[in-house]
Amino acid sequence: MQTYSLYWTDISGTDHTEFRFEPMPRVKEALSRLLTGPGRMVVKEIKVVDALDCLCFHSIDGVPIGPDGNPMPPQEKTNANL
């Protein structure tokens, strides 16, 4: 089973380790809370890395950032994504 670690930085610049080596359902739950929950106002940056320390997700101010360092455009949802 693939595992992931989630790290985030608050608006004062303090780094937080949300968890290490957890499965994807836990990652999705934490991302949802950090991006849309009441605490989202204090979250500056979020990073999710896999067990090999490869960056899987990166968000700054709630906007996903692509591998080139630029904001990712919104993706259109299809029936396959639902």
Q: What can you tell me about this protein's structure?
A:
The protein has one domain. Helices cover 16% and strands 38% of the residues. The protein has one helix at 24-36; strands spanning 4-10, 15-22, 43-50, 55-60, 63-64. The protein has a five-stranded antiparallel beta sheet with strand order 2-1-3-4-5, with helices on one face. The longest helix is centred in the middle third of the chain and has 13 residues, at 24-36. The mean pLDDT is 87.
Q: What's the arrangement of strands in the largest beta sheet?
A: 2-1-3-4-5
Beta-strand percentage range: 35-45%
Shape type: globular
Q: What is the tally of helical segments?
A: 1
The radius of gyration computed from the alpha-carbon positions, rounded to a whole number of angstroms, is: 13 Å
Q: What's the average pLDDT? A: 87
* Helix proportion: 10-25%
Our count of domains comes out at 1
End-to-end Cα distance: 23 Å
User: What does the main sheet amount to?
Assistant: 5 strands, antiparallel
